[in-house]
Design brief:
The protein is of the alpha/beta class and about 525 residues long. Helix 7 packs across helix 18 and helix 9 runs parallel beside helix 14. Helix 16 links the parallel strand 5 and strand 6. Strands 1, 2, 3, 4, 5, 6, 7, 8 and 9 form a nine-stranded mixed beta sheet that branches. The protein is built from 20 helices and nine strands. GO terms for molecular function: glycerophosphodiester phosphodiesterase activity.
Length: about 525
């Protein structure tokens, strides 16, 4: 078989060597009479499936980056080891997708050059391992982090129109090697099967926009107001979480609410702390090594004031933004101590922002005394009660009676026949659809969703009309003046028609030109 035009013999030889892992010149290949067998076709199909499988995992890996800090915290609690595992995830995924993509490109080029697809056993083994690793990753995601499947569905509202264009483009390019293979193969059954499958896939893709629903497909004048920002433990990308420095950094980011977590010391002083243990965010292992594993509530306030609540931030670098801190900020970080709720309320009052908090741990035997101590500090602080947002469900009725001015925020959706209508809800962003957000907005219910860090997710929720979002990345979302994209429905329809028509003409040209 003569080499197709534009495919020189040295290039064909090089492609064969990379794909087959053996030095066979195109001339020798012809002499030996090597041909692509059914087994070789099966391995090419497997290679194509592995590439698509890995590509889907890459998409998931990018989506779950929004929540990956939670995974880092989980690993630390289990293993006492801090590492930014998102880097490990991205590097491993990049290696797998690059390997399968390179092999696929080699195979397609060999097909265009009329060379046999003799995949070496080493590549076969590595492809099987790649498929197993990705399958294990998906299984782990489904078992330990099932809510990320809902995150993926939300992400399709942001990426659906662009994924459609990309997939149509990729399938259109695939028409060239497919046409080459069909015209060269002698099996009529195989030709008909491949053409039917390809045509079916393309018809589905051409009609896919009918099923794509995105809140950002709307007219400019329909765009809801930008959601307010709630600082998750302050501004944890710019300062150690749950410290006064973090609160003031959040104020600089124009947040309207400082979200935090409150615990009560052994001598009855409410203070800011998220974890039940002090090991992650203080130097308790150095100061009180024999008590490091104890619950935070077993320490008295004098002991807690001896702990450094900032240096860990520079040592562990929980976010990449730590590297860009100024010398002044680094010095200020080392001076941070665990703040009391009284100090946080005073700072919030001076900064004119609200404060929203959970009271932990809710299963503690002295929880009612924790509620009483917290309420006493709030009432004595002088902060306007409407600036306090109360999250804990325990003893909520008591709180309403003693401090009716405090805003009650519920961590659940409204119920049918609700005796007292909800005014504020605080939920994970995966738990509310765009339709529910719009309905709550129409009913004058304020909806805050957490934790929203990525601009694509913030854009979707913005278009949906959410009231506010809790975020680690207030410095990023503050700068967004507009959703990442916003398309009028008429413009989207025009793009859809142009892309599908261009794809159809390109496929038709490929089959006619190579005939």
């Amino acid at each position: 078989m003569a080499d197709p035009p534009g495919c020189c013999r040295p290039c064909a030889t090089c492609l064969l060597c990379l794909y087959s892992c053996q030095w066979i010149t195109a001339k020798k290949e012809k002499r030996k009479g090597l041909r692509t067998t059914k087994c070789d076709c099966s391995w090419f199909l497997f290679l194509f499936c592995v590439f698509l499988f890995t590509l889907v995992w890459l998409y998931f890996a990018i989506i779950i980056l929004n929540d990956f800090h939670n995974f880092n915290e989980f690993i630390f609690k289990q293993r006492k080891l801090w590492l930014d595992w998102s880097l490990v995830l991205l590097i491993a995924t990049a290696v797998l997708i690059t390997y399968s993509a390179v092999l696929l490109v080699l195979a397609l080029c060999l097909q265009l050059c009329g060379q046999p697809l003799k995949l070496h056993w080493l590549h076969k083994t590595l492809l099987i391992l790649t498929a197993l690793v990705v399958a294990a990753a998906f299984a782990g995601l489904g078992i330990k982090w099932a809510e990320e499947w809902r995150s993926a569905r939300i992400s399709l509202q942001a990426t659906g129109p662009f994924l459609h264009i990309g997939i149509v483009g990729g399938m259109t390019l695939l028409a060239w090697p497919l046409a080459t293979f069909i015209y060269r193969t002698r099996s009529t059954g195989l030709k008909v099967f491949l053409l039917l499958v390809y045509c079916a896939v393309m018809i589905v893709l051409y009609l896919a926009p009918l099923g794509i629903a995105s809140p950002c497909i709307m007219e400019e004048n329909q765009l809801p107001p930008k959601p307010a920002l709630v600082g998750h433990r302050g501004a944890p990308m710019l300062a150690p979480e749950n410290t006064l420095m973090s609160l003031y950094k959040a104020v600089d980011c124009d947040v309207q609410v400082f979200e935090t977590d409150v615990m009560v010391s052994a001598d009855g002083v409410p203070f800011l702390m998220h974890d039940e243990e002090l090991t992650r965010t203080t130097n308790v292992q150095a100061v009180f090594p024999e008590r490091a594993a104890l619950n935070s509530t077993t320490f008295n306030w004098t002991d807690l004031q001896q702990l450094d609540a900032g240096s860990w931030f520079l040592e562990r670098r929980p976010f990449p933004t730590v590297q860009s801190l100024s010398a002044g900020d680094r010095y200020q970080v080392t001076k941070q101590r665990i703040p009391s709720l009284e100090q946080a309320l005073e700072a919030a009052k001076q900064s004119n922002i609200s404060i929203m908090f959970d009271l932990r741990p809710e299963n503690h035997s002295d929880y009612q005394s924790f509620v009483n101590a917290t309420l006493e500090v709030i009432l004595q602080s002088g902060i306007p009660l409407q600036q306090v947002l109360w999250l804990p469900d325990g003893f909520r009725e008591q709180v309403k009676q003693q401090a009716p001015g405090i805003q009650q925020v519920y961590g659940r959706k409204r119920l049918q026949n609700e005796k007292e209508p909800l005014l504020h809800v605080n939920l994970p962003y995966q738990d509310m659809s765009s339709e529910e957000i719009r309905q709550y907005h129409q009913d004058n219910i304020s909806v805050n969703l957490y934790v929203v860090n990525q601009p694509w997710l913030f854009s979707v929720l913005w278009c949906s009309g959410v009231s506010s979002v809790t975020t680690n990345a207030c410095q990023v979302l503050k700068e967004m003046k507009h959703p990442i994209w916003l398309l009028p429905s008429s413009t989207y329809l025009m793009i859809w028609i142009v892309v599908d028509c261009a794809s159809f003409l390109a496929i038709l040209w490929a089959f006619l030109l190579l005939k």
